[in-house]
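If your schedule permits, I should be very grateful for your opinion on a structural question. I would ask you to consider whether the tokens describe a fold that such a sequence might reasonably adopt. Thank you for your consideration; the sequence and its tokens are set out here.
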Amino acid sequence: MKRTEKRSLFSRLFNPVDVGIDMGTTTTRVFMKNRGIVLQEPSVVAVEPSIGKVGAIGSKAREMTGKGQWEVVWPLENGVIADFDGAVGLLETILDRVVGRNLFFKPRVMLCVPTGVTGVERRAVTEAALLAGAAKTYLIEEPVAAALGAGLPIQEPKGHLVMNIGSGTTSVALLSMGRIIHSASLRMGGEAFNGAVDRYLKDHLHLQVESSQLEEIKLDIGTVSPRGRRGNRIIRGRDTITGLPTTVRLGAQELRRGLEEPVVSLLTCLHSVLEKTPPELAADLLDTGIVLTGGGSLLEGLDECIQAGTHVRTRVASNPQECVARGAGMALDDPALLELMERK
């Protein structure tokens, strides 16, 4: 055996592989130390029902919908496991891809869960990871992981407020000295804005479009700021009154009215945490502000709306979609945080 191979074997034996996984409702991201985000795929699995064999995950699995014998499932709903076997298959394939299959060198895995999940939901995530091949599994709440991934010094005796807006869930947490002081969650996230686009098109323009178009419309002309985008987009779909194909021109500021409802829900969730914040930590927030993470935070003008609705300076983290996965991986390098998690 070559000397470099011996060194690699020795280092793997005494330095376990650490994997941070943000297994979200629509997207799964994996972070590994010194490598960054090593996998980003839709949270979908194609399974052969007769034998339970996983044929593909991610984009390839999504393309197999309605083809042959494959059953295509999305194992998570609102950030928690809805299909246990599908979740195991997804995690097993992910670990196979990023770590490889080895009986002796199994990875330590940090998985993210929404704030407020039940004990049953937590156990389901832990068991799924162990069955998928993890040597040891830790669970971290999404806003804690998001804060770490955003680079916030949450271990210091100062208040930090994080709102993580995933596709299916939103978590808000006030953090200080590595702990959650107060938190709140919603079983809604960025997908709620897609739903708002859909309702606006149907109610005001009598137009029905494919669900895949909703995300495109939101990203292209979506805004919740009166000073935001002024462009428009031609949208093709079916007239809900005549049943015939049709096209309409939709303006960004016109669509803004339809996107306001989910913003109200997000603000209500934030206020529920702010109202419980101790005065000394509330004073800290005037300096540290509110940090938004998750893909839902990228909607134009959302930070502006939240700042106006809370009177607290608000900003979007750098690479907000990656914060949770990055923070999950970073937490495995923090002995103090691991100790807190093992006490739960």
Residues 198 and 214 are 7 Å apart (CA to CA). The two ends are 44 Å apart (CA to CA). The longest strand covers residues 179-186. The chain has 13 helices and 18 strands.
